[in-house]
């Protein structure tokens, strides 16, 4: 199994918010170290619906989710 490079993660990040906004409210998308390479961390405002089947990778870049709630300005 090959590991995603930082450039691959940056390229995948561009479309990730669009893809995942169809499943849940996206609070943010970041790049994280993952499995010896890089991956995307999708911060969502609420848990994914039980019938959602999000992709585990985007263009070969692994995806992780975290429910962070609403992001508000302080």
Structure write-up:
The chain is α+β, with helices and mostly antiparallel strands. It has a single domain, classed as GMP Synthetase, Chain A, domain 3, CATH 3.30.300. The chain has 1 helix and 4 strands; from the N terminus they run αββββ. A 4-stranded mixed beta sheet has the order 1-2-4-3, with helices on one face. The longest helix has 15 residues. The relative contact order is 0.26. The mean pLDDT is 89.
CATH topology: GMP Synthetase, Chain A, domain 3
**CATH-level-2 architecture:** 2-Layer Sandwich
Q: Strand order, main sheet: write it out.
A: 1-2-4-3
Multimerization state: single chain
Q: Report how far the terminal alpha carbons are from each other.
A: 43 Å
In terms of per-residue confidence, which ranges show pLDDT below 50 for 5 or more consecutive residues?
none
Count, helices: 1
Helix content: 10-25%
Layout of SSEs?
Blueprint: H1 6-20, E1 26-34, E2 37-44, E3 57-58, E4 61-67
Parallel strand pairs: 2-4
Antiparallel strand pairs: 1-2, 3-4
Concise account of the structure shown:
This protein is an alpha+beta fold. The chain contains one helix and four strands.
Keywords:
single chain; alpha+beta; GMP Synthetase, Chain A, domain 3; four-stranded mixed β-sheet; 1 helix; 20% helix; globular
């Amino acid at each position: 199994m090959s590991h995603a490079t930082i450039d691959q993660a940056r390229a995948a990040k561009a479309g990730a918010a669009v893809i995942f906004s169809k499943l849940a409210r996206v609070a943010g998308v970041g790049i994280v170290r993952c499995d010896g390479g890089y991956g995307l961390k999708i911060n969502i405002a609420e848990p994914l619906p039980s019938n959602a089947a999000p992709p585990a990778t985007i263009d070969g870049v692994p995806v992780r989710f975290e429910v962070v709630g609403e992001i508000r300005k302080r």
